[in-house]
Design goal:
Layout lengths: L1 E6 L25 H10 L2 E8 L1 H4 L5 H17 L6 E5 L15 H9 L3 E10 L2 H8 L4 E5 L4 H5 L9 E3 L2 H24 L1
Helix pairs in contact: 1-3, 1-7
Length: 194
């Protein structure tokens, strides 16, 4: 069974901006986020990104600009020893009423079509906004809120899904997942030796 972590992008992996992250120069990794992705890989998680990018639909930047940002993200993650397997993005604005824009689960459902063998107990979405948490809740996965980006504001939202777990940042979440993985491996090794 596949262990899968879906990451929101802005405010989770990289710094968020009120005026949108519009270029490769404006795409700045959050401290520890590249290492965090490597730690998730070490804990046997496959890592993908699911991100709303309505700045494309609004004309603030192009698909080419987005591809440059993601090339930078992939390069920095690889330098840290990690891998993001794929990036899903929704270029639409709310007015488009598409099914892929979070909080609707279309993008998440599409990811799960690709990763058909995903363990429902090992399916997480890490986000900083309510719509991220609602999208994963709709498919039965575990909502994880980080307090970076818009996370502090989201934490106070009365609509926060009840089963949301909260971490300071992506690095803290990843370190916890890696520690849990190592403990399970140690127990398994011990049982095999008995």
């Amino acid at each position: 069974m596949t262990k899968l972590v879906i990451l929101d992008r802005d405010g989770v992996i990289n710094e968020d901006r009120d005026d949108f992250v519009k270029s490769v120069d404006e795409w700045v990794a959050l401290p520890g986020s590249m290492d965090a992705i490597a730690f998730l890989n070490q804990a046997d998680f496959r890592v993908v990104v699911a991100t709303n990018q309505s700045g494309i639909g609004r004309g603030f930047f192009t698909i080419h600009d987005l591809n440059e940002m993601h090339a930078k993200m992939h390069r920095l993650v690889q330098q840290a020893g990690g891998q993001i397997e794929a990036v899903w993005f929704c270029p639409h604005t709310a007015a488009d009423k598409c099914a892929c824009r979070k909080p609707l689960p279309g993008m998440i459902e599409d990811i799960l079509q690709r990763y058909l063998n995903t363990d429902p107990d090992e399916l997480y979405l890490v986000g900083d906004s309510l719509r991220d948490l609602q999208a994963i809740e709709a498919v039965g996965g575990q909502p994880v809120l980080v307090l970076t980006g818009k996370g502090q504001k989201t934490l106070r939202d009365p609509a926060l899904p009840e089963d949301t777990v909260v971490y300071h940042d992506l690095l803290e979440f990843a370190q916890t997942m890696l520690q849990n993985h190592q403990k399970r491996q140690a127990v398994q090794t011990e049982q095999e030796e008995q």
